[in-house]
Amino acid sequence: MKTETQLIPPGSNALARRSFLSAAAATGLSLGVVACADKKSEGAAVPASAPATTAPHGAANVHLKPGELDSYYGIWSGGHTGDMRVLGMPSGRELLRIPCFVPDALVGWGITNESKAIMGTKPNGDLRYNVADTHHTHASYKDGNYDGRYAWINDKINARVARVRLDYFICDKITQLPNVQGFHGIFPDKRDPVDQAINYTTRVFCGGEFSIPLPNTGTEDASQYRSMFSCVDAETMEVRWQVLIDGNCDLVATSYDGKLAATNQYNIEMGAHYEDMMSAERDACLFFNIARIEAAVKEGKFKTVGKSKVPVVDGTRESNKDPKTALTAYVSVPKNPHGVNASPDGKYFVCSGKLSPTCTVLELTKVLDWFDGKLEKLDAAIVAEPEVGLGPLHTTFDGRGNAYTTLFLDSQVVKWNVDAAIKAHAGDKTAKYVVDRIDVHYQPGHLSATHGETMAADGKYLAVGCKFSKDRFLPVGPLHAENEQLIDISGEKMVLLADHPVRGEPHDFIIFKRDLVKPKQVYSLDDFPNAIKDPKESGVFRQGKKVTVKMTSQAPAFSLREFKVKRGDVVTLILTNLDKIEDLTHGFAIPNYNVNFIVNPQETASVTFVADEPGVFWCYCTHFCHALHLEMRTRMIVEA
Ligand code: CUK
Ligand code: CUA
Ligand code: CA
Fold this sequence. Notes:
Elements: H1 3-7, H2 12-26, H3 31-40, E1 72-77, E2 83-89, E3 93-99, H4 113-119, E4 137-142, E5 145-155, E6 160-165, E7 170-176, E8 181-188, E9 203-210, E10 227-233, E11 239-245, E12 252-254, E13 260-265, H5 274-277, E14 282-289, H6 290-298, E15 312-314, E16 328-334, E17 340-342, E18 348-352, E19 359-363, H7 364-371, E20 382-384, E21 392-397, E22 402-407, E23 412-417, H8 418-425, E24 434-439, E25 444-449, E26 461-466, E27 482-488, E28 495-502, E29 509-513, E30 539-543, E31 546-554, E32 557-558, E33 562-566, E34 570-577, E35 586-590, E36 595-599, E37 604-610, E38 615-620, E39 633-639
Bound molecules: [4Cu:2S] cluster, dinuclear copper ion (CUA) and calcium ion.
Dinuclear copper ion (CUA) binds near residues 586, 623 and 626.
């Protein structure tokens, strides 16, 4: 979320927050002081102005005993590192990084042929991309809740979407969207819009943020640029269709009945510079009628753009004025909105204001009524516009009718009641919708409650991704960790439980109960077509200059004690780990040859390189596996 940092002089709010804290410290209200005092006087009255850390209902225990397991998984987007991170929650302990878009030195992601095939290579075999910028991660649904099959994550830079299998916790497919730059929001559908009997995720929707010339001819006139909203098949990971739109896409939300998807638009102006992008008083929340789009594609009412064969339907304003045939609906909302989120009761999407101190609550049945010609004015789909505070960015839910919105400028999370906000909008002056506020440290972007974007929202914990950590951790030079804070939301008042430093910059995350996934800890040899199932199959196999080296590993030895190749050979080395015990991973490194990768139990991986340097090279196991781990070696002899 970079927009605000451009609009507001860097550090200005930081200074405000710092001086607030020093003033608080001066009056004896620094966090530490209050926390200590509270311990001594359990249940004592808490001053109204005290931080919510002192709420008397007490904090859930996030400090697990050694050996104790977490009750939730957290799936975090890695940001620049292009990976997906797996955390145990509520402890916040990082358990795994799943490399997706960017090479990873532990796994050998981007080194092995198998990972390169997923990541995509140039004709010369080099990786097409070494950089990424992941923002959003979401998991597959069944019956309105996560089903533990898949998670998806976006790469904004190169318009790629990666799928992660939640049985092995590995990335298995990456798709690049054609004619898209700045792929931002991503959300799987929750049910099939055409066949309602299919009650699980079959599509993944992707929002293109930057408008570009289509096809990209290099035109300077930005008024000619357009964006695309894309649909990717959840199973095949192929792009099914795209919608050409006016304005841009940002975040994406989907309805529980599968009928609607929406994206917030901050640039209906289609401006090329930030002042142009904020010139209009209102932007839009853009709805997509999924069943109608699929019907249009089926009937052949589409074009293609450039080299891409993907069907593109027309979702522009001009072509979608008649509700009876419209594929899209542009609902006007206040200036430059940010996240759009679906409430767990399935009734509403909430668009956060960003440059407006409000959230916009949109009732989905009313949007469907408009498409059916039963609602005259689309604006009537807006059923509430609660004033929540400065810089609202993202919203999550507790399943008890409350919404939680991050306030980037106020450095707070505000808890507000959706029904009360709707009553207030209808004119009920007694309706008080703001329930609680809590200071976070510091500017928050995303937040996610346990199961918050599912029908099983349990209202237990809330994680907040704070973009600036400033003084919360030991200083380590100019680059600060970000601060993921955990908040107990089980009571009326929010209680801050913990700070966790994270390496920049995760953006988004989801948290779900641990029994939803059943991870497998040992691969099956049959998962790999090139597996070497018996050590006796090992050896060096030559076909002219092409050499295949087949090898297995079983602690503490590789099946070949040495192998010989000739200078200039193109060597493909295939290694199968025949160890069957869980947690018995081996590594394989070749000095000077830029090779290091791991093979997990029963896994097969391969590398291809040119043996251009003659000599003896000790290939060794890089992953601690056995008392004789250091002795676990083989020799590659490259003959001159
Ligand atoms: S955006 Cu970063 S805080 Cu990319 Cu989800 Cu709102
Ligand atoms: Cu095998 Cu270390
Ligand atoms: Ca705007």
